Amino acid sequence: MKIDDEVLERIRSAKTAFALTGAGSSEPSGIPTFRGNEGFWKDKTPFTVESFNENPQEVWEWHLEIREMIKKKLPNPSHFTLAKMQSIFKNFAVVTQNIDNLHQKAGSNKVIELHGNIYRNKCNNCGKIFGEINSKKIPECDKCGGLIRPDVVWFGEPLPYKALIKARAYAENSHICFVIGTSGVVQPAASIPLISKEKGAFVIEINRETTALSEYLDYSIFGDASVILPDLYERLL
Ligand code: NAD
Hints:
The chain is of the alpha/beta class. The chain has helices spanning 5-12, 23-26, 49-54, 56-71, 77-84, 102-106, 161-173, 192-198, 225-236; strands at 16-21, 90-96, 111-113, 116-123, 129-130, 148-152, 176-180, 202-207, 219-222. It has two domains: 1-30 and 75-115 and 159-237, TPP-binding domain (Rossmann fold); 32-72 and 120-152, SIR2/SIRT2 'Small Domain' (2-Layer Sandwich). The protein contains nine helices and nine strands. The strands form two sheets. It has a six-stranded parallel sheet with strand order 3-2-1-7-8-9, with helices on both faces. A three-stranded antiparallel sheet has the order 5-4-6, covered by helices on one side.
């Protein structure tokens, strides 16, 4: 794989960096991407609060099925390489749109989840947070009696405020921004690399194909992130 020497030098000389990851970073683990032709997500109209209110049991069961599929998957070399990046950059964080917990499983300590986590739940009424729940019947909150839902961000919902603030701080204060396996069309996550660029970071995209962001970023490496990232890491040492 070709990566220009000046790009490698730019990364080597940087003190701070972070990565924004999307569904493509978990694709080599066997979790389908949102817009891919295969798997769980392809026939689904994206969920919204309205669809949950109309048919909470169906939405609950679908998420249980997704969670059980995800539970069988393991981190791949792209997750492990991002965990290793913690040893070469100060305060390295992964800002992820993924809900699958695989960055944490691979050993990343600072994971900022923009779209929640499939293993966590919350009360749809009072917001009380719950861990994993195995009931097939949609559970009710022990505090207020409201329905419990997965703690993931559905279409049209705002992102968790604290996660967004943290992600923005990384975007504004890092020398390098890696953009890995994201189509760059889901907002506001897609604006994070642009904020980084505006603030002077060198922004490098790793994706199988050109994305909505490509033309605005500094450098693109096309291919499988689980192959490119380990190779890139070796060349930085
Ligand atoms: P997306 O499905 O819109 O785009 C995936 C991107 O990854 C595409 O640009 C594709 O070219 C690229 N890609 C696929 N395989 C790759 C590989 N091996 N190496 C490098 N690039 C690869 O995903 P998105 O941009 O993350 O947005 C979709 C939304 O769906 C997100 O908000 C996310 O929360 C959710 N989602 C999450 C998961 C997960 O948790 N694993 C999976 C699917 C969707």
